[in-house]
């Protein structure tokens, strides 16, 4: 059975750990935190690697969520990858724990004109 949970979130911190520029591309490691409200409630920590130059940018990240999804408490890991071909988020297989053990799925993140972020989680459990 496919389920959808939608939540707004805030980015609680953006902490660049290191930055290096090599041959026109800047590489960064960033730690950040988020707080979710809605169908997904709780917090997450994200470890992100970015590469940015004059014509493109990309990142990969792993996000550890300590949340409840539609009332089920636990957590899981989202694997992010983004670049010129789009933004992809998948639930890392086997990462679910607590009442979210066995969760699988994908997610999307949108941002409105005022800068508000929304996470939509499409999942099976």
From TrEMBL:
Q: Which InterPro entries match?
A: DUF3224 (IPR021607), REJ_dom (IPR014010), SO1590-like_sf (IPR023159)
State the name under which the record lists this protein: REJ domain-containing protein
User: Per the UniProt entry, what species is this protein from, by scientific name?
Assistant: Amycolatopsis regifaucium
Q: What Gene3D superfamilies does the entry give?
A: SO1590-like (2.40.350.10)
Q: Where is this region: Disordered?
A: 1-23
Q: Which ranges carry the REJ domain? A: 1-125
Q: What cellular component GO annotations does this protein have?
A: membrane
């Amino acid at each position: 059975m496919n389920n959808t949970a939608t939540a707004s979130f805030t980015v609680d911190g953006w902490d660049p750990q290191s930055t290096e520029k090599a041959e026109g591309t800047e590489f960064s490691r960033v730690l950040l935190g988020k707080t979710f409200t809605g169908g997904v409630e709780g917090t997450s920590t994200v470890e992100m690697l970015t590469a940015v130059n004059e014509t493109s940018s990309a990142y990969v990240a792993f996000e550890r969520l300590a949340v409840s999804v539609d009332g089920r408490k636990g957590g899981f890991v989202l694997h992010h990858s983004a670049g010129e071909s789009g933004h992809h988020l998948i639930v890392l297989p086997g990462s679910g724990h607590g009442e979210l053990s066995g969760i699988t799925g994908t997610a999307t993140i949108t941002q409105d004109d005022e800068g508000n972020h929304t996470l939509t989680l499409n999942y099976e459990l």
